[in-house]
Write a structure and sequence with these properties.
Structural class: alpha/beta
Strand order of the largest sheet: 1-2-3
Distance between the termini: 18 Å
Largest sheet: 3 strands, parallel
Number of helices: 4
């Protein structure tokens, strides 16, 4: 489990969960980026993930350049549907 800098700064997750921090050394098998645009420091932190899935409403978001699977859509509409399917 990881979090973006914005999520950590907002208090939703502790600092040690921030993606891209040096302490997080083991790459995940699956990384699901929901509503993540793909700032360069975030992309650096996820580059070694085996499979990257991205959901973002901006089809030009940098996260799609590294994603193995991408869905262009609003996270508040797409996530519940995907959750039900899983």
């Amino acid at each position: 489990m990881g979090a973006s800098r914005a999520a950590v700064d907002a208090g939703y997750a502790p600092n040690e969960m921030q993606v891209g921090r040096p302490a997080r050394s083991s790459p995940p098998e699956l990384y699901v980026a929901v509503g993540i645009s793909g700032a360069i420091q975030h992309l650096t932190g996820i580059k070694d993930a085996r499979t990257i899935v991205a959901i973002n409403k901006d089809s030009e978001a940098p996260i799609f350049e590294v994603a193995d699977i991408g869905l262009v859509g609003d996270l508040f509409r797409s996530s519940p549907s995907l959750e039900r399917l899983l």
